[in-house]
């Protein structure tokens, strides 16, 4: 699995006011091209909206990996619909089976990202992808802890804030 691709895609938006990398269809095309996803020459507002829906559904699923509550059924429905629109299917080449889109354009590029999710589900990497537990962050990361216990994107920022908050709540008089 190319976990970096999935993480980078989810992290194209954050929870700060100026943290949206995919503000226009042109920015979406540029982002996809920069990662070799062959998005074609055109994208419209519907493509941009679909990409954002897929991104946020993936973020919700990664948040669920971190024992946070979200509507997993809705997120899976969004992902499944996008996979259908990309016409994902098994392709055999060079003695390897891969999940790849038959559609081109932005839908095909999104399908390539979902193909990586499928590969991660098959190889066990997917469960290690998480979104930060902090409600105001939810940044995607790969949990490399042996016991898969990492909860925050960074102990220096979100983890420290959570621990200080918990400490203060315990010691209030």
Can you tell me about this structure?
The protein has 173 residues and is mainly alpha-helical. The protein has a single domain (3-170), classed as Orthogonal Bundle (Jann2411-like fold). 51% of the residues lie in helices and 10% in strands. The protein contains six helices and four strands. The strands form two sheets. A two-stranded antiparallel ribbon has the order 1-2. It has a two-stranded antiparallel sheet with strand order 3-4. Helix 1 packs across helix 5 (105-123). The longest helix has 21 residues, at 45-65. The protein is globular and about 60 Å long. The termini are far apart.
Flag low-confidence runs. none
Name of the CATH class: Mainly Alpha
Q: What is the number of E strands?
A: 4
- The computed structural class is mainly alpha
The 3D shape can be described as globular
Strand order of the largest sheet: 1-2
Biggest beta sheet attributes:
2 strands, antiparallel
The number of domains: 1
Radius of gyration: 17 Å
Rounded average pLDDT: 90
Tell me the distance between the termini.
50 Å
Order of helices and strands: HHHHEEHEEH
Helix content: 40-55%
Instruction: Return the CATH topology.
Output: Jann2411-like fold
Level-2 CATH architecture: Orthogonal Bundle
Regarding quaternary structure, what we see is: single chain
Strand content: 5-15%
> How many helical stretches?
6
């Amino acid at each position: 699995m190319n976990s970096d691709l999935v993480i980078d895609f989810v992290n194209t938006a954050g929870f700060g006011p100026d943290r949206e990398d995919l503000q226009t269809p042109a920015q979406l095309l540029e982002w996809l091209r920069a990662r070799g996803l062959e998005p074609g020459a055109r994208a419209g507002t519907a493509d941009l909206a679909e990409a954002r829906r897929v991104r946020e559904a993936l973020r919700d699923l990664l948040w669920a990996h971190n024992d946070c509550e979200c509507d997993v059924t809705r997120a899976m429905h969004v992902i499944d619909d996008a996979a259908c629109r990309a016409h994902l299917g098994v392709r055999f080449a060079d003695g390897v089976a891969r999940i790849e889109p038959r559609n081109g354009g932005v839908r095909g590029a999104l399908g390539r990202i979902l193909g990586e999710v499928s590969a991660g589900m098959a190889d066990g990497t997917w469960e290690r992808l998480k979104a930060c537990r902090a409600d105001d962050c939810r940044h995607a990361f790969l949990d490399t802890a042996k016991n898969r216990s990492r909860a925050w994107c960074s102990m220096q920022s979100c983890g420290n804030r959570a621990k200080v908050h918990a400490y203060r709540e315990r010691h209030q008089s």
